[in-house]
Amino acid sequence: MIKKFIFVIMSAVSFSFTTLGMELEDYYLQLKVKSLTDDFFMGKYDSLNDEIYLGMNSFFYFMELYDIDVDIKRKKIFGKIDKQEIKITFEDDECAILDDELYVKLEVLAEKLNFKSAKFSSEDLRIVIEPRFELPYEKREKGKLNRLRLDLSKEEEEKKIDVEMPRKLFTPGLVKLGYRQPNLKNNSYNVNYEYASQLFYGEFYMSGGIKPERDIDYGNLTYSNILGGNDLVLGNFSLIIPSFLDVETKTIGVSLDSNGTYMTRDGGITIVKGEAIDAESIELYRNNFLLDYKNYGDEGFRDKNFEFRVNDGVINSNYILKIYYRNGRIEERIVYSLSDSDLLKKGKNRYSLQVGKTDGTEDHQRVGKYFYGVTDNITLGIGGMRLTSVEGEEYKFLENDILFRTGTNKFPLMIQYKNYYDYQNHENNFESTIEQKIFDYNLKYTYNEYSEKIDIDNKIKNYKSVSVGKSFGRNYIEFGESKTQETTGATEKYIYGLIDTSIFYPLYTSLRVEKNINGYNKRIAYNPYISYMGSNGFSIMANTRIEKINDGDYIKEYSLRTNLRRQEIVKNKLYADLGFEVRYRDGYRRPTYGITFDIELDDFIYTRISSSSNFDEKGKHSNGTGIQVDKTIDLSDPKRQISKNISLKNSWVYGKVFLDANNNGVFDEGEEVLSNVGIMADNVIFYSNGDGDYIAEGLYSTNVIELKVDRRTIDPMTKYLKETLKIKTRKSAGMRIDIPINIVSMVAGNIWKSEDFTEREFMQKLTMVNILLEKDGKVIDEVRPEFDGMFFFESVPAGEYKIKFEYLGQDEIGFSLPEVDVKIETLGTDMGEYFDGFDTVLIRK
Questions:
Q1: How is residue 326 annotated by DSSP?
Q2: What single string gives the DSSP state of each residue in 714-776?
Q3: What average pLDDT score do residues 543-564 get?
Q4: What is the spatial distance between Cα 502 and Cα 510, in angstroms, rounded to a whole number?
Q5: Cα(429)–Cα(413) distance, rounded to whole angstroms?
Q6: Omega into 506 within 30° of 0, i.e. cis?
Q7: CA distance linking residue 740 with residue 248, whole number of Å
Q8: pLDDT of residue 143
Q9: CA-to-CA distance for 143 and 134, rounded, in angstroms?
Q10: pLDDT of residue 16
């Protein structure tokens, strides 16, 4: 508001003069070039002709184009922009020389520098420019993105980690004891356990039952990111295999692989699988559109794994999972297609190996793969697998993969080919995909063909599909055709169209129309869908399917699902869930519906009470109430109260939050501890207690954790100097990290005008000034002065500094004091101060 007020005042009192038949006035404007913005950029405005003029030196300085020279006398600019030589001369009616600066009409500058667009609004005094060339800041951002690529070397990744927890031979670990009685009306119950710790420099996990039977149902020893970015797992793991094979994936053996959540397609059905230990609920999004969700307790993901089956026939879409854990953490996970191989850089390789027996049947399973980047655009793969299906059928395959990319960034083409050669029966199975992007359009073609054996065993012969999709604004549209041929000779061929929109966010709507175009069973189906996501944990999904068949009859199906997730009744202790679902299908006498209600007490002992009431299609009523009780114990400190219902595979960070009076980063005797300070870790906030102690539990260990301090919970004149601490933790282990809070001050000064300049010249020269704050020879902050010469540095901790003044223009301008020494002392105080008077004078050399 202050800047806007000053902006209006400066515009109102701007000076005016006439030159070359033009009446030009000084105007402070908002200048925006791509993502660069200056709210007080001074230009010249010709009010008679409604034209704006920009000063060349200040304009190129603003865009950081320091290789451009301005010849004011000859009215020329020359130099390099994005490695391209430029040399431009302006006519007398296109420019003006004022205040030792060359001012050029905006429209002339846009034409001669070939800007994509340049717009000036005299109403809100704003200029928006879109050049065709790349600016230096964009190159810096690209450099940052390149450094963040997934194929960074391990050494580069380690450089980004501030603190890493060491691997240990053994830690006592955590144990969780649980009691579950699904229905209080009967006497069936079970008592189970989980145990996790560091063992032999790896992560050990085991779970099983105590009553009614004593057993071990799951256990492994994992070495995360140990070989080629893969996890080495000894014990239970999930087998990663092609979707056209009916093979049990729960395996006991050795796995060296990096796949987590993945997606496969079986004809028109999209299958999303993965692991989310201790998840409370999971939401599935297609193109950012809420498509489905599962609540805690749904079969398939309560313990280790989850699975979504999306029978919508959509081919060209992207999927994202949002996972809500019981400790309050929220994870967004991209779903990767299992049919996709990663395109590797030239000379890079990737491999995986899984060997073991199916849990329960002792069937041998073996899978091995190797990929190599021949060039940056071609990756080849080879592999082999010997598998046994659920029905006891043996499969022996050699796998060959080709991944090829070509084209420009606007027109990339990706070709993927996987061939599975059955060397036992001398038959081929292959899956191929071609993806082409043309501007904003995505085209995809898939052709899968399977051998006679697969045809007989799994009733699939071949599958073809083609689709084109495009996003525009908050809308997405897709058209496609799909054909599936089964072993019986039956062929199903259909075309479809899909449009979804989030214009009415957070309300999402979509409509899919599908038409069968082969055989006698011609039909058309309409599938409108609505979903709503509220920020308070409330979601609703309404789905309708109306299908018209040959004789003109309609088959209708309706469903409505609502969910109110994790409503806090008592802060950090008592939570409640409420769910409602109703379905109706033609052919049944009445709709089916049900209500679920859960209460969670998450304190010293985690307790969950679940109640449900259901009516089936015959009107038969059933209800039940169950109870779950869990207690987690830290064997290294049994007295420690673990209030969160955490996963034992997660880690924790603890320590003390204190006011670091002597700025040494260490908690010393007599220093003040800080309570109720919010520590952000893994998207969850934890608070320090009255003794300044905090504990961040349930951290997801496979990624680097970012530890931050919520500045809203500390004094404005204090700061956590690290701002973001990146931590690499280990599963089932804790690490102490103290949080020193430093007292910070504000440092301010002024650049004063000398008699060498008029008021107008002085303000123009200030746009070319940069001010640096240095400590021990390193720049720790830099600012630009305000239009009146005032500058300030915020959040400066105690210490000795230098303020340096720089003039980046071409003319001979300097300062009476090019640098100023600054000493900030806060010892013995509990808050920062305001230090000013660090002034200099702008002079001509």
A1: T
A2: S-TTEE-TTSEEEEE--TT-EEE--EEEEEEEEEEEEEEE-TTS-HHHHHHHHTTEEEEEEET
A3: 85
A4: 9
A5: 24
A6: yes
A7: 52
A8: 47
A9: 13
A10: 37
Cα–Cα distance for residue pair 317/703, rounded to 1 Å: 27
d(CA 668, CA 325): 37
DSSP 486: -
Question: What is the rounded distance in angstroms from the CA atom of residue 426 to the CA atom of residue 200?
Answer: 45
What is the DSSP secondary structure assignment for residue 42, as one 8-state letter? E
Distance CA 509, CA 390 (A): 40
3-state secondary structure of 39: strand
pTM of the model: 0.68
CA–CA gap between residue 31 and residue 42 (Å, rounded) = 9
- List the domains of the chain with CATH numbers: 2-140 (no CATH), 637-742 (2.60.40.10), 746-844 (2.60.40.10)
Q: Provide the 8-state DSSP code for 58.
A: H
In angstroms, rounded to a whole number, what is the distance separating the alpha carbons of residues 240 and 369?
Answer: 11
From CA 754, how far away is CA 207, in angstroms rounded?
Answer: 78
The Cα-based distances of 584 to 499, 555, 592 in angstroms read 25, 11, 6
Closest CA to 354 of 218, 456, 252: 252
**Residues ≥6 apart with Cβ < 8 Å to 146:** none
CA nearest to 50, candidates 76, 82, 24, 26: 24
**Around Cβ 840, how many Cβ atoms within 10 Å?**
21
**Cα dihedral value 719, 725, 731, 733, nearest 10:** -50
In 287-408, DSSP assigns E strands to 289-295, 305-310, 319-325, 330-334, 336-337, 349-358, 364-375, 378-388, 394-406
Whether 120 contacts 126, CB under 8 Å: yes
Cα 738 from chain centroid (whole Å)? 28
pLDDT score at 139: 66
> Which pair of structure tokens corresponds to residue 118?
């340049």
pLDDT averaged over every residue in the chain: 83
Q: Are 811 and 794 spatial neighbours (Cβ–Cβ below 8 Å)? A: no
β-pair partners for 834? 746
Q: Which pLDDT tens digit goes with each residue over 196-221? A: 999 999 999 999 999 888 888 889 99
Q: What is the 3-state secondary structure (H, E, C) of 761-817?
A: HHHHHHCCEEEEEEECCEEEEEECCCCCCEEEEEEEECEEEEEEEEECCCCCEEECC
> Per residue in 782-795, pLDDT tens?
898 988 899 999 88
What DSSP character marks residue 487?
Answer: T
Tokens of 516: 């069968």
* Phi/psi of residue 766, nearest 5 degrees: -65, -25
Q: Cα-atom radius of gyration of the chain, to the nearest Å?
A: 33
Amino acid, single-letter form, for residue 678: G
Strands of the 68-71 sheet, one edge to the other = 68-71, 76-81, 84-89
Q: Which residue reads 């980063």 in tokens?
A: 665
- Residues 6+ away with beta carbon under 8 Å from 44: 24, 25, 26, 27, 52, 53, 54, 55, 96, 98, 103
- 470, pLDDT greater than 70: yes
Query: DSSP E strands: which ranges in 182-249?
Result: 190-199, 202-211, 215-227, 230-238
Question: Which one has a higher pLDDT value, 700 or 671?
Answer: 671
Alpha-carbon torsion angle 779, 783, 789, 792, nearest 10: -80
Q: Which helix (H) or strand (E) holds 8?
A: helix 2-12
Chain centre to alpha carbon of residue 52: 42
For residues 86-120, one letter each, b for 16 or more C-beta atoms within 10 angstroms of the residue's C-beta and e for the rest, the string is beeebeeebbbebbebbbbbbebbbeebebeebeb
Contact partners, residue 712, CB within 8 Å, separation at least 6: 678
Average pLDDT over residues 299-328: 65
Tell me the residue type at 782: E
Whether 18 has a pLDDT exceeding 50, the answer reads: no
